[in-house]
Amino acid sequence: MIEPRTLKGFRDFLPQQAKKRQYVIKILTKVFESYGFEPLETPVLEYEDILSGKYGEEGDKLMYRFTDNGDRSVAMRYDQTVPLARVVAQHQNSLVFPFKRYQIQNVWRAENTQKGRFREFIQCDIDTVGSQNELADAEILSLVAKAYSALGFSNFSIIINDRKIFAGFDTTAITIIDKLKKIGEEAVIKELKNIGVSQEQFNSVKNAQVPESLGKIQSLAYELGVDKKILQFDPTLARGLDYYTGLIFEVVCDDYPVGSLCGGGRYDKLIGMFSSQDIPAVGCAFGFDRTIEAMDALSLFPRGIYTTNVLVTVFSKDLMQDSVRLCAELREKNINAEMYLDLPAKMEKQLKYAHKKEIPYVILLGSDEIQNKTVTLKNMQTGEQKTISQEELTPELFI
After folding, report:
1. 56: which of 30, 160, 173, 336 lies 20 to 30 Å off by Cα?
2. Both 263 and 331 in a single domain?
């Protein structure tokens, strides 16, 4: 017998958790599309040279890469920004610019697994490609604020900075400064000194004022409805990825302080790696799993997230055909309905089934109801029952 098991860092999602994930995707997609962003999908595998060298030394170490059966060097999607850059360079004659896209797909990283970090996980990205205007940056910040508000978050902040503040610092120094909140100022200064960066140089970053270009983005974001209390400037925010050129930001939640929930920024040089010209871009990636964990911890999910609106019971095999017919009629009305299948079964067992699946309503369809063309509708949350005609069963009844 083969032992059932999953690889470390890889997960199954049973229905209750999968429904939460779909709930978040549905809300995020609605917000994305309300701003005019359109969906994009890219392959799991890319040629290795497309991905390597784009994420810094640590990113290259964490990338899943191998030689396929055709003796090609390939790598699994590490993020969605580099594949986007490849798509824009490869298909730019078919795209409408500014190109505003969202992408919700899995990525793979050989992480040391810990709370909130996995080796396979979903990323939700939004990016605007082809505009250098500060309005594009501000719109991303506005969308992010709206998305987290729509998910139910109230006590969150968007920490912003400008990567230009780190002019003169190499990528190693920037990566060290990026660890400030994790390891503390004393440890950061020590590591910087080890690579020849003085405390005075670090202090010049720590005490920097809001750059003019970032101030313009802030002002535009306020005009787009972002609460001034949400946007917070932090000159030490670095974000470790190599490709950022301007605005950088992260979303944090004071009620769930385990790291950023979302992060992104402007990257005007990355797409030029695949094209004869630089194409400006700005965007972000939502930390999907961490956002769900935060929503669980803060009880932000609705009490019942269900896929089935109503369970149609079967009193006996003789009455099964009537239950089948009613189920079909409900589905024709766009009401998600299912019928208890494991027959014969006592009514108590059927009600318990509905309770365990968190189905909000149960239809009792006995011989009296069939004769009178009625149903007895039971609300599983309140326990209340009422008898109504079958014609009264409309989608509005189950909202």
Report:
1. 160
2. no
Reported as a pLDDT band with limits 50, 70 and 90, residue 241 is low
- Check whether residue 362 and residue 290 sit in a common domain: no
Q: Find the radius of gyration of the CA atoms of the chain.
A: 26
**Residue 36 DSSP label:** T
- Using CA atoms, how far apart are residues 100 and 195, in angstroms rounded to an integer? 40
Neighbours of 380 (CB within 10 A): 18
- Quick: pLDDT tens for 7-46: 999 999 999 999 999 999 999 999 999 999 999 999 999 9
* 314 and 275 share one domain: no
Using the predicted structure, report yes or no on whether residue 121 has a pLDDT greater than 90: yes
Listed residue (254, 249, 248, 259) closest to 289, CA to CA:
259
Task: Flag whether pLDDT at 262 surpasses 70.
Answer: yes
284 and 329 in a common domain: no
Burial track 284-323 (b if 16+ CB lie within 10 A, e otherwise): bbbbbbbbbbbbeebebbeeeebebbbbbbbbeeebbebb
182 phi and psi angles, rounded to 5 deg:
-80, -40
Is position 268 within any domain?
yes
Whether 236 and 319 share a structural domain: no
Q: Evaluate if residue 355 carries a pLDDT over 80.
A: yes
272: nearest Cα among 108, 123, 130 = 130
Range of the domain at 155: 15-297
What mean pLDDT value characterizes the chain? 92
CATH number at residue 59: 3.30.930.10
Check whether residue 280 and residue 348 sit in a common domain: no
Q: Is residue 145 within 8 Å of residue 230, measured between CB atoms?
A: yes
Q: What is the pTM of this model?
A: 0.87
Verify that 284 and 241 share a domain, yes or no.
yes
- Which of 81-90, 232-241, 370-379 comes out lowest in average pLDDT? 232-241
Name which residue leads in pLDDT, 185 or 44.
Answer: 44
Say if 195 falls within a structural domain: yes
How many domains are there within the chain?
A: 2
Q: How many CB atoms lie within 10 A of CB 18?
A: 13
- Are residues 334 and 399 in contact, defined by beta-carbon separation less than 8 angstroms? no
Positive or negative, the Cα torsion across 242, 243, 249, 252? negative
pLDDT at 335 over 70: yes
